[in-house]
Amino acid sequence: MADAATDRWLIRALQLVLVLLVGWNLFAYGGVENEQFTSRHYFPGIEVDYGGYGDEYFVYPDRLRPIHRETEYNVINLGALQNNAPPPGRGDFVAGYDGAGRMFSSGFLPAVVQRLSLGALSVHSASFAVNVVLWAIAALVAFQFAARGYPDPYARYFAASIVVSYPIFSLMFQSLKMQYAHSVLVLLGIYLAHFVLRRADLLTATIAFTALFWMGAFTGGGFVLLLLAVAIWLFAGHTVGRNTTMMAGVSLRSSGWVLAAACAGFVIALISSDYVRQIYDLPRGHESYSIQKTFFIDPFIYLKALVLGTDRSQLLFLGFRGDEFFTRILGLFAKSLWELNPFIFAGAIAGFIFDRDSRPLLLTAAVLFIPSHAPELLMGWAGPWGYGNAPSMLLVMVAFAGMLGRLMSWAPADRRLALAARAAAVAVFACSVGFFFYDRHHQVDNYYFSWDRLDAVKHIHIYHDAQYTAY
Amino acid sequence: LRWLLGAAIAFALLYASGINRNLFFLAFGLSCTAVAIVWAESALVRLAAAIVFLASAAVTVSAPLPPRVDVQAGLTDGLRKLPAGVPLIFRFQLHGIEAHRAKCGPLEPYAVVVGTGLTALDVSANGALPLGIDMRYARDVTQRQAAWMRLPDDVKGAVELKLVPREEVALYQGPEVAGHDVYPDAVFLMFENTECRVVYHVRRAANG
């Protein structure tokens, strides 16, 4: 009786924490467009980049807003989707950004918001709304994933609270350029594949996958990542995930049908989206990179040289010369993950070793880790680029929450042990969420290329005449 | 499946009736509706999602982008030429500098000018020459450079920065804005140490 009362009390406390975290994120991260802020002349090493890669500004009634040069394409995307009439000419939909790769999240979704507001919301307000919605969907899917994947009543609140606090979303609330649709798509896709479409008929599953891949075809390559994620998830489920709660009652046959539906949906989405690309004369890629070269041709040549023992110093592997990918880049990516949140990173490793139920998600996250950094590899950008971690990180967070939930609900004969486990789970949860808020400047740095900007200058004070702003 | 087919028919009707001929919008809308229908656990949520996307596809909005002002219009690489011999004056009030020094420790003061041909610029701050000039260059292909001019450590109150081009010099123009105020010239004061950066922006003085 006392235990049941304690459980209820704990769940209410976790619900309250979740509500507080939602409110705090909405309150604390408003107002700063970090995408632009981090490219201004306030940081060591970029003093000549005056104005934050901007040369124009929007005139709003309440203020002027500089236009980040890299948001140009997105602004044009939005214009083409505001109207029910197709654009007047072929090619009037935007070119740029890897074949209009962000058209879904930066064009369509803000256009929906603007249409529903009957045009009352500006491009900035609509983009803010989209980023908040994506953040909320990620938290909701994490909640559902944990609720259905882990039997205890706690994991779901841990998962939602951690995802809500994941600053990659909230730091981006104001951004016009980046919306993390592809990360949400991967989480949602795996959730639907495992918990919903596995039980649906083949036609329904194929239609649903087609819809997911259609959206993903215009979210910076998210559709390829999603197909990969589903395939890896199914593999992980039937290998390291055998005999787990999540895989209870799941047959190999049903996984086969899910994979078949996913592949069929991928092909249909690829063909139909390509047809629409042709109609509107959208580019299929960008001249500055080649997916085939970076991910297939170069690695093949590199690996051949590795096997034959010939000189590799001038060859490329995943966008980097010689052995640089292994000796430097991989370390940068891993460091970025660690710097993002050492508690979750370390907890996930512990989870993989000790918690069987966490393994399928963690294995999927690990395999997706490198492909989700595809933009940096394609462009050859050496840096942490923390946003490339997001698709994997969301899966890790759910697995981590599952592990915490298991600790919370552990019921050994010795009540002191159970109490210690609960205390440990709450403490680790508090540390993992608290770390996200501990040093926001560091998190901003972790996402944008370099640890030597905001980290190098902890406090920034700006005066425009007498008008003062602190960052 | 019935819900999915219903959504497909509804979107097809929107297209066939001519209400929405934007194929891209309709395809995205149908995709979102299909995913929402599959994801939703109750008929009410499915209906709400379908209504949201169908309603958005049924209306067309005229939400033009806000007016844009290009501060670099007519300029090459955003550089505005300064006529030789004509002085340019920037009057900075160092608001709160003592408080920042008290909190951050000693701060190194610099006047920073971004542009090209900056070696042909005679600079004085409060009538005195800078203590030193460090020229930094852009990483990109532009010829832009930044002249970091060291000012005396104890500078306080106000700084009048006077720039006099001996020959052709160009100042970079960027959208440094605050509220409704534009600060077009890339000329600012920077007080820095490893802990803090304090930046002052002003516009060129009327007689400058």
Offer a concise description of the structure.
The complex is a heterodimer of chains A (471) and B (208). Chain A has 471 residues and is mainly alpha-helical.
Described by strand count, sense and barrel closure, the largest sheet of chain A is: 2 strands, antiparallel
Number of strands of chain A: 6
Structural class of chain B comes to alpha+beta
Distance between the termini of chain B: 72 Å
Which two chains have the most extensive interface, and how many residues on each? A-B, 81 and 80 residues
Number of helices of chain B: 4
Class by alpha and beta content of chain A? mainly alpha
Shape of chain B: elongated
Order of helices and strands of chain A: HHEEHHHHHHHHHHHEEHHHHHHHEE
Sum up the overall morphology of chain A in one term. globular
Query: Radius of gyration of chain B, rounded?
Result: 28 Å
Helix content of chain A: 55-70%
Number of helices of chain A: 20
Oligomer: heterodimer
What integer is the average pLDDT of chain B?
A: 90
Helix proportion of chain B = 25-40%
Low-confidence stretches of chain B: none
Number of β-strand runs of chain B: 12
Order of strands in the sheet with most strands of chain A: 1-2
Q: What order do the SSEs of chain B take from the amino end to the carboxyl end, as H and E? A: HHHEEEHEEEEEEEEE
Tell me about this structure.
The complex is a heterodimer of chains A (471) and B (208). Chain A is 63% helix and 5% strand. Chain A is mainly alpha-helical and 471 residues long. In chain A, the strands form three sheets. A two-stranded antiparallel ribbon of chain A has the order 1-2. A two-stranded antiparallel sheet of chain A has the order 3-4. Chain B has four helices and twelve strands. In chain B, strands 2, 4, 6, 7, 9, 10, 11 and 12 form an eight-stranded antiparallel β-sheet that branches. In chain B, a hairpin with a 7-residue loop joins strand 6 and strand 7 (145-150).
